Amino acid sequence: MKKGVSAFIFTALAAAMGSAFAAPAANAPSLTKEAKEASAKIYFERCAGCHGMLRKGATGKNLEPANTQKLGQGRLEKILTYGTEGGMPNFDDILSKDEIKNMATYIQQQPDVPPEWGMKEMKANWKVHVPVAERPTKQMNNINLQNVFSTTLRDSGEVALIDGDTKKIWGIVKTGYAVHISRTSASGRYVYVIGRDGRLDLIDMWFEKPTIVATLKAGLEARSVDTSKFKGWEDKYAIVGSYWPPQYTILDGMTLEPLKNVSTRGITVDGEYHQEPRVASIVSSLIKPEWVVTVKESGLVKLVDYSDVKNLKETTIETAKFLHDGGWDATKRYFLVAANASNKVVVVDTKEGKLAALVDTKPKPHPGRGANFVHPKFGPVWSTSHLGSDVISLIGTDPEKHPQYAWKVVAELKNHGSGSLFVKTHPKSNNLWADAPLMPEKDAAESVTVYSIDQLGNPDAKPEVINVAKMAGLPETKGVKRVVHAEYNEKGDEVWFSVWTGNKTEPSAIVVLDDKTRKFKTVIKDPKLVTPTGKFNIHNTQHDVY
Fold it and tell me: What pTM, to 2 d.p., does this model score?
């Protein structure tokens, strides 16, 4: 994490809690002030996304003292060191032994409660760097913007805009810590990037070099952003969803001015009040002036009608906990999202505004945005990989022509490991790719599995496992080189993988494969390419191609 971001968070924490962290839980081992502050920083960076700021659990387990103290110091250290089969990575190649020891102690103490962050704080931290009237009226560069990749440089707090035609870094911009996603404007001109520290940046690609034209700090932790895309409303609004405080905020799409803030605290599908139901993912409908907003801990999906922001209308759909990432089916009518700790995929019919199905899957589905293709037997399917199981689940998505397969897991493809984060294909490709970066075994984390789509009905056909990390030609390091996040280029004939060392002091890379031959094409290496993770091709992101 950048020093400035860390300082901001803990200054805010101290102000909210009288310059002191939460009192230790009864029977909890003690930490020095310095060790506790360092552990709190690590927790925010590495753990809060799965376990929650208040440690109540979601994708990851509940880490409140009543649970962690039962495990004890020694067992907690082993779990942190070696990871678990449920999808938690090993930290022995990321943290030192002392840091692991202190983290095991820290999570036995009472969770620190962050301050609130409302409209007043947002407006005080909103800045338009370049007014709309002063921005270019035409593209001032010769870059093929449709084939640019907005690439997260996780631990440097930056985004690299990489020219997909030349494989060169076109520009690097300072953003928030660990940008979670990049989303494009309906026009394809702007890139919206949201960091896990709640900083949202609007990047204009019409300048000679990519330029941040507006910034907003939407909260202390965030994951999701999108724009209005329905015809007649293109980019009029943007929406950002926060993990802390749990809320979503509607913004002016061209300036990021905060217009309306809506809390997501409330009653879960189980009928219990929850104080930290975080906004997990957001997609923008093309058939209505609506956003689909998923609320993780509550298990609620909200269809937010932005046609009248002053008199905002929500359709609330009860589904299942704990909602995470998801994407559209091929028709863009149905939204499929993982309720990963419930081992389900939720299907929402956005045309009818209601739940279409709850699909049972193997443990902890984690699709990213999923992958759509036509199966030789089952017709159109959407697929997800899993954090907690070594399979790729295929779900039928055509209730009209293939009703016998609709909203069912019609097949499970064997992956080379669990701990998978992303599965990906392209309409022009015959390949389906899956990673497994959270596997503790080195060879598995470095590899991907690729399936021939036209052979999926053939019982004799076997998938191919490819060690992508070895293709990068990086020096040997103590850490595992985790291969993560397949992304296609604009034409659909290349697939890009990040080789993520997990440590900003060690070199990382992006490996490009020829999608048809599955052979190495090139590697992108640069000292400025610090811990690359997500890569978002502008064309594919703009048009929801996956």
Answer: 0.88
